[in-house]
Amino acid sequence: MKPRSQKSQGKPNGKPNRGPGKVGHNQKPYFKNKNNQKAKGEKPNKPQIRNMKRKEKAAQEAAEREKVRADRDAQVKAYKKKRLEKTKAISKRTQKGQPLMKDRMQLLLKQIEEMKRN
Questions:
Q1: Which residue has the higher pLDDT, 83 or 34?
Q2: How many structural domains comprise the chain?
Q3: Residue 36 domain-assigned?
Q4: How distant, in Å, are the alpha carbons of 9, 58, 85 from that of 63?
Q5: Global pTM?
Q6: How far apart (Å, rounded) are the C-alpha atoms in residues 83 and 111?
Q7: What is the mean pLDDT of the chain?
Q8: Which residue range forms the structural domain that includes residue 69?
Q9: Structure confidence at residue 64 (pLDDT)
Q10: HEC secondary structure over 4-58
Q11: 79 lies in a domain?
């Protein structure tokens, strides 16, 4: 039996190896365009647009949260001021330790006036 020649060994369909690349003879190789950088005036690509939209949305949400927090802080301050005023009026005492009815009556009068308004 004759030994096979070097040429016939390789791929079974008889095509010789074309080298390390995976490109067939009909296709052009794909190389990234490293030298072809985008100009500054061009519009951004899709991932950049997505990131810009996310940042805008995050900024809007942060502004909304800040507004809500400011409103809540204002409400808490008003409540604390009202509570302090009420506590001072109720806790006043005479020299003998009796509660001052004058301030309590004024507080009750304020409450009645607020109820009439509503």
A1: 83
A2: 1
A3: no
A4: 72, 9, 33
A5: 0.50
A6: 13
A7: 82
A8: 47-117
A9: 97
A10: CCCCCCCCCCCCCCCCCCCCCCCCCCCCCCCCCCCCCCCCCCHHHHHHHHHHHHH
A11: yes
